[in-house]
Structures are given as C-alpha cells and as structure tokens.
Amino acid sequence: MTITRRALLGASGAAAVFIGAGLVSGRGQAATIPEAPTTDSPATAPPLVPTTGPDYNPVVTINGWTLPPRIKGQWKEFHLVAEPVVREIAPGMVAHLWGYNGQSPGPTIEAVEGDFVRIFVTNKLPEHTTIHWHGQLLPSGMDGVGGLTQPHIKPGQTFVYEFQLKKSGTFMYHPHADEMVQMAMGMMGFFVVHPKDPAFRRVDRDFVFLLNAYDIEPGAYVPKVATMSDFNLWTWNSRAFPGIDPFVVAKGDKVRIRFGNLTMTNHPIHMHGYDFKVSCTDGGWVPEAAAWPEVTIDCAVGQMRAFDFVADYPGDWAIHCHKSHHTMNAMGHDTATWIGSGRDALTSAMQKVAPDYMTMGASGMAEMGEMEMPLPDNTLPMMTGWAQFGPVEMGGMFSVVKVREGLASDDYADPGDYEHPPGTVAYEWTGDEPVTDAPAQAKAEPQVEVQVVKPSANSVHNSH
Ligand SMILES: [Cu+2]
C-alpha cells in the first residue's frame, strides 16, 4: 500500500487552499493546512501506532487505512478531501465513487478522549457537501448539517471543524448534504475515540468496517443514486467477497470487531464458532456487567455496534450478514427459479434452436458457484470464492475470521487455509470408517472444554 503526499499547491489546488485559509482565519495562528495523505490502494493498511499522547491499541480498518494527524499545539489536525475516487470492489470490478483522500470509505480517524481535533475538509466534488460527526458530543455549529448548522462547503472551498472529544467510543462520519446521492456514492468513514486510560476495555486486535451498498449495473461503473432498496452490491468498506480481507487473529487474543451501517436496510451480522459480547454502540460503552451475549447482532440503519471475544478457538470462522441476498454479488438476483422444472427435456428442446443453451438451477443454484461463466465486463459473479474444500458460493458481505496459534502481535497477513486437526472435519459416511467411542473433537482439541452438565447447558463449543 502506498500513501502519497498530495501536492496541494498544484494548478487546481491553489485556489482551494487560498479560499480555505480565508475561511479558517480568526484563531490567531497563521493558517496552514495539514497535508492530505491519499491512497489508491484497497489493501488493509497496518494499524497506525500512536507516537504521541496516551498509549492506545490502534484499530485495523478492513481494506482501508487510518489518516495520520498533524500535531499542532493542543490540536490534533486532520485533512479530509472529498473527491471522486476509483474503488476496486473486488478483483475484476472497479466502481467510480465519491469518497475521501483517494478511496471510499474515507480513512479512519483515530484520536483519544479529551483531544482537541481540528478537521479540515476540502471539497473537490462537483457539488456542495458537509461532514456530520455521527455520535460525537460537540457544539451544534460543528455538527455538519448543511443549511441547519453551517453553510454548505461549496466546490473548491475548505471548511474547518473544531471540537473536543468528550468521550471514547465508536463513531463515524458522513455528509449531511444531498445525503441520498453522497452516501449512495460511497462517502463515509470510521471515527474511533480511544479511552484516555490505556487499560480501559483494551483489546489486542480491533477491526472496523462500514456496511454500505451500491446499485451498479453489470458493465457500468457509477452507482445508481436513486435506488431505495434493490441494491445489487452489498459491501463492507466498499468491498465485496472475495475482495474483503480476512480478520487475522492470534489464538488467545482479546478481539473487538466494530461496524456501522450506512445502507438503507438492517444487517444481522453473524460470526461462527464463538459467542461474543456486545461491548459498545455509537451511544457509548456497554458496562461489562451488562454486555449481552450474541452470535448474531442486528445493526439497524444509522447504528454502530462493537462486539468483543477472546479468540480461544483456532479455525476459519465465517463472518457475514445473515440476509442471504446480502452474501450474493451483482449477477443473479433476477435469476428465474427452475427447481423441479425437468431440465433435460427443456434443454434438449432449446438446443435444437440454440446449440449452446444451458438451463441453470434445475436442482438448485450451487453450480453457479463452481462455473466459470462468461461475465460482462466489470461485474462480479453471483456467488464465488474457493477454499480448501471447494467453492464457497458466497459474495457481498462475507469474510473469514482466521484464528491461528503463534501469530506475532503485528501479523495481519492472510495465513491461508486452516489445518484442521485430524478427526475434526465432517466426513462422508462409507460404512468402512473406524468408529470410536470418544468424541473426535474432544480428543483432538483438548483446549475445548466439553462439560457434561445437562443438555441445555451452554458449555459445549458449537459452530453454526
Ligand atoms: Cu445484510
């Protein structure tokens, strides 16, 4: 991943900087705008370890990155540039979106409870915009609602937002101007405020992503901005499976996964292999004694949720939205149902007039996951992805939490397929298999405590 320093004083940037400086003035300091780092990469950047101020464990933005601040006196300064961007949704498809600093979503902002933040926002879009700091407690005039709390930021202008971070937690940012268009085009970003006390609710790995959705016709590049419910690309951080990086975790780590929903519908996010505790919402921390257990957590529109778990169980554990159409990609949502249609008769009749004709789906659509179907340019197959046992038949909002023994604390590289201990993989019954009396999983994975208490006890480690 390369993050380049934006040459702000380029031919087209000079005017914007000059106008911005005028709007910024009044604080007594010579106004200089911090550089706006940018990237064209959809890779997951390593966490940005703090070099000043209180210690904290930085977050990892899945297929994203964190915006480095400039420290100026008591201020932590950031510079966001709203602009058209090109985002790879997954290998084989790019989208022409609007975002910040080269990508959609924009970079994650990280700071610490009590910090004074000064956020410069330069508008390089063809229309006006603002930024709303979702969930933050701040002066009304810093809330970013165009028309209501501030004038809109016109193309070419730079505005400044200044506020103190009153509390730690999980927040996001997005425009509050022409919202339907600007969010449908990908404008959003994560905002994490770490506790002043480095030990408070600390975890070892902390992942963040935003739920978003696009309606992009196969072969097209720009989302249809008026779509209300019939989206065909369901994404995390503007990436669809198999383009969403795995959540790589070392066995024994304390792990937090945080997400926010800026689509037009709710998403029940489900993680296999674990139960977890809901630890934080955009309203604040859930007291530990009150954190409730889940294996699926529904995230309504405009909500944020974080859940915590201890990575006791090695494996490849699916994490996905549980709405089955949200784990599909663009091709195939309109597919006719052929189940039970008597495909052979239909196929031979059709092939008399169209020799290449195939009837898909007479016994289900799993074959769609295996076939290398010719696709129009710039789209993604309905269900796709391969792993060690075959086609995964997924798309959209799907990834894998990969829990491995012995990873270094800063190792987020994809460790590949999980090597299952002998006797712990579902197998075909042939009648010739040796039958053992002891449960295979209990023998092969002694770290899993199987307590025989009573049938209803929630003590046995289940997958789903
Ligand atoms: Cu969903």
How are the SSEs ordered, and which strands pair?
Layout (H helix, E strand, L loop, with lengths): L2 E3 L7 H12 L12 E3 L20 E2 L8 E3 L2 E16 L2 E8 L8 E4 L3 E8 L8 E3 L23 E7 L4 E6 L4 H6 L4 E6 L10 E10 L18 E4 L10 E4 L3 E8 L5 E5 L4 E6 L2 E2 L7 E2 L1 E4 L4 E7 L4 E7 L21 H11 L13 H4 L13 E4 L2 E5 L3 E7 L35 H5 L20
Parallel strand pairs: 3-13, 5-8, 7-12, 13-16, 15-26
Antiparallel strand pairs: 1-2, 4-5, 5-6, 8-10, 9-11, 11-12, 13-14, 16-22, 17-21, 17-23, 18-19, 18-20, 18-22, 23-26, 24-25
The structure holds copper (II) ion.
Provide structural commentary:
The chain has 5 helices and 26 strands. It has 464 residues and is mainly beta. It has a domain at 22-197: Immunoglobulin-like (Sandwich). Mean pLDDT is 86; it is low at 5-27 and 450-464. The strands form 6 sheets. Strands 3, 13, 14, 16, 18, 19, 20 and 22 form an 8-stranded mixed beta sheet that branches. Copper (II) ion binds next to loops.
Low-confidence stretches: 5-27, 450-464
Beta-strand proportion = 25-35%
- Which fold name is given in CATH as the topology of the domain at 22-197? Immunoglobulin-like
Mean pLDDT over the full residue set? 86
Number of helices: 5
CATH homologous superfamily descriptor of the domain at 22-197: Cupredoxins -  blue copper proteins
Distance between the termini: 35 Å
CATH class of the domain at 22-197: Mainly Beta
Structural class: mainly beta
Report the C-alpha radius of gyration, rounded.
24 Å
User: What is the 3D form?
Assistant: globular
The CATH architecture assignment of the domain at 22-197 turns out to be: Sandwich
What does the main sheet amount to? 8 strands, mixed
Catalogue the ligands.
copper (II) ion
Helix content: under 10%
